[in-house]
């Protein structure tokens, strides 16, 4: 069920009305039930799978927490659960390549072989909804509990509440247990919380379902046949794709955070003016914050972080972000994107540690050149996200660098509008105090903005690009 669908609107309104008319002690149970119903719209079979995964993690916490093997075995279980569903065909393809078995490299052929071998008609490994997100949440909880960062006893229903929270099931943000643990017992919503929640939802709808949809017709037309378009068109596409990703993803998380506010929860911010960065590292302190901080705390730092010298730090960057790239999908393009991201961060770190200065310290000149360099590197790297394979990505990059002739970029106007909208929202994220509005004015303008956004909504439900990860 899509957040921007009419069905979800009815679902949320019903949940909201019942939820706030229940005693506090029943609210978390009703929210679990509502989240289970929401999950059922994706697949009722995978609902039982998710309940099983929650139960196994609770058993680890309840009965085996003191064991020396608790952490590696419990984390291993969650990683294997993710690996089976998300990387089954990826690993089968690798086996097929190394052993020279073509049928392992073809999904349809492999499904046919397994259907016959297992006597299971129509066998197929399907990716469960939100498995990438809830796996990260389980791992962070297990590690934080073992480190003593979580002091309370985690009962079955508390653990279930942490995972079964439908506002974050599609787009995150990726929660930490301590972010929400105390909020389940006595959720509260003041008038300002309700107004702020409705503002977040309408802003998210505007970003996701109005502006990103307006520009999607142009950029996805280029995605469909990159070889036909000129180098200039492809370069324009990578810039606008970065804006599209921001609007699409931050819009969904704004909706999620707004629904959280309306249910009495304060959920973590996920974007903070990402394209107002000052370097490669600064970008990741602004973009998909709950993901980048998870990579830092549960991969990069456990690998040694920056404690063992420059070379080891660079290795840790590349390994951590390589795995982060694979988290996005079972595809060599994503792995390469992650490794490249780690490489950019490594080069930046080497220059800093060795005090190497490439650009002169001239006011605004160094900052401008650095910004344009980082923007182009990151934007061109995202070609790996919208091309089907590595060869197509290389061909697209070549067309940009040799400035190939071809079809011009189609319909630039919606993309320019999207760029202006993105700059506006970046400004509000970077300097929130300058855009602060009193409750009286926020309340007065809220219905007007809602009407304008609803009138601007296109027909149908736009897909969430990041949902495929």
How would you sum up this structure, described in words?
This protein is 67% helix and 0% strand. The protein is globular and about 65 Å long. It is built from 19 helices and no strands. Helix 3 crosses helix 7, helix 9 runs antiparallel to helix 10 and helix 10 crosses helix 18. The protein has two domains: 183 residues, no CATH class; 265 residues, no CATH class. The protein has 469 residues and is mainly α. The longest helix is centred in the middle third of the chain and has 34 residues.
Structure summarized in a few sentences:
It is built from 19 helices and no strands. It is mainly alpha-helical and 469 residues long.
List the defining traits of the structure above.
globular; 469 residues; 0% strand; 2 domains; mainly alpha; 19 helices
Order of helices and strands: HHHHHHHHHHHHHHHHHHH
Domain count, please report it: 2
How much helical structure, as a percent, in the residues? 55-70%
Number of helices: 19
Could you give the count of β-strands?
0
Structural class by SSE content: mainly alpha
* Beta-strand residue fraction: under 5%
Radius of gyration over all CA atoms, rounded: 23 Å
Q: Can you summarize the main beta sheet?
A: none
């Amino acid at each position: 069920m899509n957040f921007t669908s009419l069905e979800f609107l009815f679902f949320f309104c019903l949940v909201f009305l019942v939820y706030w008319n229940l005693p506090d002690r029943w609210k978390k149970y009703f929210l679990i039930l509502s989240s289970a119903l929401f999950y059922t719209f994706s697949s009722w079979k995978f609902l039982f799978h998710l309940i099983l995964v929650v139960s196994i993690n609770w058993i680890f916490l309840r009965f085996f927490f003191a064991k020396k093997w608790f952490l590696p075995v419990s984390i291993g279980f969650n990683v294997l659960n993710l690996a089976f569903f998300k990387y089954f065909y990826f690993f089968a393809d690798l086996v097929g390549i190394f052993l020279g078995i073509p049928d392992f490299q073809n999904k349809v052929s492999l499904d046919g072989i397994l259907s016959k071998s297992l006597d299971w008609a129509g066998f197929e490994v399907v990716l469960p909804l939100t498995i990438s997100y809830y796996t990260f949440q389980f791992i962070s909880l297990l590690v934080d509990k073992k480190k003593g960062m979580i002091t309370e006893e985690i009962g079955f229903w508390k653990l279930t509440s942490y995972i079964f929270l439908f506002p974050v099931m599609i787009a995150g943000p990726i929660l930490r247990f301590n972010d929400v643990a105390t909020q389940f017992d006595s959720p509260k919503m003041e008038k300002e919380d309700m107004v702020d929640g409705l503002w977040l939802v309408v802003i998210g709808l505007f970003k996701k379902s109005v502006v990103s949809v307006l520009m999607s017709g142009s950029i996805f037309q280029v995605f469909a046949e990159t070889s036909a378009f000129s180098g200039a068109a492809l370069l324009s596409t990578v810039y606008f794709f970065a804006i599209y990703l921001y609007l699409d993803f931050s819009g969904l998380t704004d909706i999620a955070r707004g629904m959280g506010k309306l249910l009495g929860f304060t959920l973590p911010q996920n974007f903070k003016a990402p394209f107002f960065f000052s370097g490669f590292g600064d970008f990741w302190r602004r973009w998909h914050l709950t993901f980048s901080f998870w990579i830092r705390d549960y991969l990069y730092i456990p690998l040694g972080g920056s404690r063992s010298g420059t070379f080891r730090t660079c290795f840790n960057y590349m390994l951590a972000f390589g795995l982060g790239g694979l988290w996005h999908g079972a595809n060599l393009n994503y792995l390469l994107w992650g490794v490249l991201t780690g490489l950019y961060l490594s080069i930046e770190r080497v220059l800093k540690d060795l005090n190497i200065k490439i650009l002169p310290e001239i006011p605004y000149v160094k900052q401008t050149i650095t910004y344009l360099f980082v923007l182009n590197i990151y934007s061109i790297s995202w070609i790996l996200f919208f091309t089907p394979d590595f060869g197509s990505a290389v061909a697209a990059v070549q067309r940009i660098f040799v400035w190939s002739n071809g079809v011009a970029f189609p319909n630039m106007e919606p993309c320019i509008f999207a760029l202006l909208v993105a700059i506006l929202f970046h400004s509000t994220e970077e300097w929130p105090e300058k855009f602060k509005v009193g409750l009286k004015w926020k309340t007065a303008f809220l219905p007007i903005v809602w009407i304008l956004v609803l009138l601007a909504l296109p027909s149908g439900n736009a897909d969430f690009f990041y949902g495929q990860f």
